[in-house]
User: Fold Pyruvate decarboxylase from Lineolata rhizophorae.
Amino acid sequence: MKITLGRYLWERIREVGTRSIMGVPGDFNLQLLDYIFEVEGLKWVGNQNELNAAYAADGYARVKGAPGCFVTTHGVGELSAMNGVAGSNAEHVKVIHVVGQTLRMMQKNHMMIHHNMGERPDHQVHNKSALHVRVDAAELWDTEKAPAEIDRVIRECILQSHPVYIFIPLDMVWEEVPANLLNTKIDLTPPVDEEAEKNAVDSIKKALGEAKTPALFVDGVTRQHGALEAARELADVIKIPTFSSAWGKSIIDESEPYWVGMYNGKVNRPGVKEVMEQSDIVLVLGNFPSDLNTGSFTRGFDQKSTIYINEYDVEIKGRKLSGTHIKSLIERLATAMAGTALSRRTCAAIPPWPPLAEADSTTLTQDWMWCRFASFLRPYDVILADIGTAPFGVLQNTVPAHTHVIAQVYWGSIGYAVPAALGSELALDELHHETGRPRGRTVLLTGDGSLALTMQEIATMIAKDGVKPLIFVINNHGYAVERLIHGEEAPYNDIPPNKYAHLLPLYNHPDSAGAFRRVETKAEFDKVLQLPALQGDSDNVQMVELMLEKMDMPWMIKEMARLRPGA
Amino acid sequence: MKITLGRYLWERIREVGTRSIMGVPGDFNLQLLDYIFEVEGLKWVGNQNELNAAYAADGYARVKGAPGCFVTTHGVGELSAMNGVAGSNAEHVKVIHVVGQTLRMMQKNHMMIHHNMGERPDHQVHNKSALHVRVDAAELWDTEKAPAEIDRVIRECILQSHPVYIFIPLDMVWEEVPANLLNTKIDLTPPVDEEAEKNAVDSIKKALGEAKTPALFVDGVTRQHGALEAARELADVIKIPTFSSAWGKSIIDESEPYWVGMYNGKVNRPGVKEVMEQSDIVLVLGNFPSDLNTGSFTRGFDQKSTIYINEYDVEIKGRKLSGTHIKSLIERLATAMAGTALSRRTCAAIPPWPPLAEADSTTLTQDWMWCRFASFLRPYDVILADIGTAPFGVLQNTVPAHTHVIAQVYWGSIGYAVPAALGSELALDELHHETGRPRGRTVLLTGDGSLALTMQEIATMIAKDGVKPLIFVINNHGYAVERLIHGEEAPYNDIPPNKYAHLLPLYNHPDSAGAFRRVETKAEFDKVLQLPALQGDSDNVQMVELMLEKMDMPWMIKEMARLRPGA
Assistant:
């Protein structure tokens, strides 16, 4: 029996756990989109533009654990999405970008078909532009070889946890391939040297056993490579003082007594640094030493007293062992450490910071707001904070277990979070239906500056069943973090004013008046957080506009800005 | 005396006629933006996102004739804009994309600064991604060499009429260079072989003189290379039957008796093709044989009876002459032809098509609408038609002299026209104040599908003084041209519904109720076109929503779709 190559592609995408396909239709992908509807369980989610599609696929992938997938058309579509894919590349996110290309005869003859450049256009030139934002690509041309190529790059996407491209000329999507190719599943086993992993486990176990004041530090790469559960288990087995980076936030259950706090070099809640500095050995999982993830490079570990478990290798007090894989190694280590006696410190719980002061002042302030916000969160919530003031507000506080804090700590593209919240909602809904786990909320935190870049994706949210994020917009009249860095009063840090009360009705929200609130005082903020609609009891998007002063910022961003290189 | 390199850059940009600088601020360009305010006459126009900035710069360049310029920040910003720059590259538009990069010490040390990718990031990697969408780039690093590099790429931008990049590490913008470098203006003389041009003129003159039924065909490249006035003059001197391509539309004064019509191979108003086919020689200016510019490749000229004046060469009945430049050559030819007797045909005027039928039916239809629309236009108007149904409606009709019809005929990126209309308005205002020519209107024609991609740029329009385009939105419930191509009822061709009455108030329009109209019938359309606000008597954005049926399309797009390759 034969099936079309288009169908084959979507069957493979479904096989690895993806259900929602993002994208924008275009004349070189329309027939490819038809085949999505032939595959049971797959769902087409059209986006408002291609950058938004890329962001949505990224948000979906982070929450679902399966690859995010989106489809664009030749040239115009694929280039529009590039910044989004680059973000997935920077932050180890599994994304498959499927590009519907011009027909092969058009390519061979260098025809001046629209969406190309030049008088004898190379139709593959856009593919070259994307070379630097992906780890692999299937450049389909030969129908016989195409299925294996598709399998190969899906595998690379998952094993490397990075974006890949699939370029498919339109006239290939209806070509036929043997259906029984699907009988063999894509092999997703990471290449691991068993012997190396055993040696690594022994060495780590020995080093930890010899330590008097060992500590565990969990960074974000851990989650991206599927090692989240393993890391939680390990932490729970060894029960030594445990920290996270900004990116590693919410991997570890912060209600456990061994949890200390987020450690960011010189930028921490008071008390955290002191506990870290008393450690004679630190076990670091999935280290990622970028500027905003290290308190502006003020976090560093002494090689002689550090054990790094990286993606594909291990570094024990400066000695490197290769051939390991972060997920399987942490799993093995957790098993090996079970029942092992370790020297354990007891640490006093670190109090929230800053304290809930100024309760008598009515004006809403960021530091007060984020402290109050902490108690609003619930297990299984996804907190999506667009880069700006929000991440530095939300990261400072304790979050419930099984939450997922997402901020683009490295790539830092403003506008990312709105479409990513769409992806997150689709993923949360799928996870709830597939696994029965509680349906968490997507809590989107963005600023007026960031929202402007991608706001149209709220239309998609409103139109799609089961998508109902809570959108908090920090309205502080422009680009606040930029004002902090340079140009506090400069006109380039202003943005055109918005009347957000019109945003939900513009996109046809069924209860646009009821779903929108504007908050100016602490009391109003407190009250809004208690509304049933914000507790998850709603069927559609909820929006809260937070009126804040221009230069009011979370303490953490002020510290980070002060310490940044070149400042 | 010394000035900063940042100041130097903006002085040079101003020197070549640019006044409005588009872009989005980011932490690696803020100090560079400060210097804009030091240069008299320059104006910062912040955009809502980077793709929109690129589109706005493109629209500005097309209308102003001077380079469009926009500024982005490292990584996230430059990549977001890439599709816009590629469009400028495809369509020969002068755009300067200035990228504020990370500091040189960060680059040298491969620091993990945000907006980069990888653990030892190459900060220049985004520059490589943009290699294929530009003709040149200044990669600034050495302060002493930087001014000459800036001069060089501005020159290349203008002479090649294509986009260039200027990459400037943030710590270079405050470095100092000699102010007197500015005393020597950038040399913008195109390299021309005088002898070759004289020969070419003689040969063309001879060939035209020998012809019995010569014709002139004007294509879009002519305008992009500054040869618009020259082409008009030539047409007026030789007075032979004159045609344009889709892209060449509005270069020639269509009220002249020698004007025949737009010639698009098999896709024309009845009568046009017949006149063209009677020609024994065709003088083609700035030929651009892309699919949508040739009636889906049904327009072609016989080499033996064609004279091509291309950008840098001439082809006379198959014989090639190099070393010419389209602008100077057309100028020379116009001078040489003055007073020359040519065999001239008299052609009957081609009537409008389709006729203004169905006047008794109240439902608004595209074919009726575009015929009525033709008489709404005035000299010096810019008509910006986003790719979709609009260009194929507006192009079929006669337009007044000195109008400028802009549609992305080759690159075809939907969403382009909204930000481009911002650029157009800024340029029209500048041209009016600088030259005293009448202030035309920017008439933006877009669809609900296209508008969704970039709608936030309307906020910028509303906030900026002197920006007041007329926005017509064809609301036909999704992607109409795609429905025509494939998937008439497919869900991927639907978009989330909009209530456009909320769009202007969302962006704080001072008279949002008065400036918005919804049109459902022919009578309403007719009435709206006569409103004083739409005649130019307004201070801010005016918006008209046109309710049209899903599958109602201009006859021309139906023909083009039927004839397209692979259909």
